[in-house]
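Render Nicastrin in 3D.
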Amino acid sequence: MAQQMKTVAVWFILLLQSITYGERTRDKMYQPIVGAACFRRLNGTHQIGCSSTYSGSVGVLHLVNIEADLDFLLTSPPSPPYAPMIPPHLFTHRNLLRLKEAGPDIISVVLLINRNSDKMTQFSHELNCPNQYSGLLKPNISESATCDASNPPNSWNPWGTGLLHQDFPFPIYYIADVNETQTLVNCFEKFNNFDYESHALRSLCAVEVKSFMSAAVNTEVCMRRTNFINNLGSTKYCDPLEGRSVYATLYPRNSPENLTTEVPRSVNTAEKFILVTTRLDTTSMFDGVGLGALDSLMGFATLTQVAHLLRQLLPPQGSLPDPRRNVLFVAFNGESFDYIGSQRFVYDMENLVFPARSTKSTPISFENIEFMLDIGTLDDITNIKLHTLITTPLAQDFLKKLNNYASSPRYGFNLDIQSDVGIQIPPTSAQSFLRRDTQFPALILNAVPANKYYHSIYDDAVNVGFSYANTSRDYISLIDVSESKNYFNATALQMKVANVSSIVAFALYETLTGLQYTGNKVANPLLADEFLYCFLQSADCRLFKASSYPGSPSGLPLPPMRYISVLGGSQESSGWTYRLFGYLLSQPQPSVAKENCTNLPLHWVAGINGTGECRLTTQSYMDALSPAFLIENYDWRSGKYSTWTESTWSQFSARIFLRPSHVHKITTLTIGIVVLVISFCLIYIINSRSDVLFDDVPASNAALFG
């Protein structure tokens, strides 16, 4: 028995050694590459994005420096399939479509490398007309009436390539890290970049990318497969794009509701709201990459400062000429994908389910909305227009208020906001409201398009020209107009955001009070500085800490992701927005102790000093899930609501290795077959001669060994 145990132990040790040796061999063979993958999304009619094969796509590395390098791959590739490494200035619509047409037999992987970015002059993957098939549509045609896609120079995104909406038969992998890029280039130079005629005869440096997408065809097919499978198991093929929008009122609402679910909800028509909105989200081709600095963050920063400034300037609600007036601030999520958040908001108001019963307030309907001010993209803050579908006294009066403050020598903003009336309105949340009713009083504040990196990985702090001042001064309090110029020059981004925010806030102040604002207090550019730092550079920032519970874990030293994602996905941008609205729009309650500040709407936050303070808050979440996924037997091709879903996947990974040549593969296969044949022959010979080779032991000897 002891001998058997020793034998088992020896075999176990040998097994562990073989496993360890196998892992070491694998580590020597493969080197992982960190990056971000393009993934697949679907809507009611088709699919877009990228996918690898089920087991992973493999291609030989080839560095593309000029377009002639692509011509070489597409005309006479010596050892396909290849994986071209393309710098951003060559990652164009024309080049990517050429690779797509070549097919996966020639091009199996595409790598976008962060190299020679100084040669890049534009990089937008979005369509020339964002959300082209939603919003206000042409009569009897499912296409935007507010943007002419046939005339790109006059569109809302003149630099758009539309690559975000293409379906590619190969994976596309973005490698941002310079060291990772250099590793790929070194491998290419060492093994591939010489004697191209012999590529088929030798081992080459190759990359394997795994990013297989489970979903295919369109949302209708994918959801049907998912629902069918879910009856038998837990497999999912796709998930609806879903997130959370965030809203807050300037004053706490005083319109309680009967919480009995059997009683139909009714609207308090005496309540009136000015609706101030913006877009919370952004997107790009690659998973988890894309800050949307210009495409949505500037508008978001402006709305936040407008809300904070009004909270500080306005008297109590009861002192207003109409004490029933309020301001409703909303940051819509999912607007990049056919206005998911605003469509849901309109749907909920139509059905009297906004806000939810859990808020203990009466529902808000269109009867309660006095007018809407939608803050869109602010690419060039010196060239802003107020867009309306038709000319109205409301629009003319509000524009006059804006320009009174924009051009006032008292404040030195030196801006001139122009009027733009007509069907060509920007692709903003207001389109969801105007699609329901073209007479809806919507005003859109939007700059002339100037963002050459709209909806791309390069719409970042560099694109927007942000430089963090990192002062230790008070950024919450308002400052005097003369003091604001002590921290930043007039062309600094922080000053531009603060100036526009002040103009809008002053105009709303005059609308609510009936009195012209004559004070010297303006929006604090230091608040814009902290806000932009949190969303562009690091969530581990002072503003986020001040708006959180004292002692809460700090945010990651990375900017929060603002892609809408899916149920169960990252919703960190919504979470931080919820906290910011709760902090910047709330009323301090200095007389309430910490132990009594535990139930909403009271909320205990760290505050600017980190010591903790009680606040009376008004913010809340609402679902940003398209009504298409709520309506039974919805017609997925109707185009009425957004139908975007995201495919599921098992993993994203990339690694480089030496791919053996075809000759090597054939030689290995041939040797294996020869060894197999020889083995069978030997076994046959030994078996047929076993009586000679293995004589029986004589019985007398057998007794000795028994």
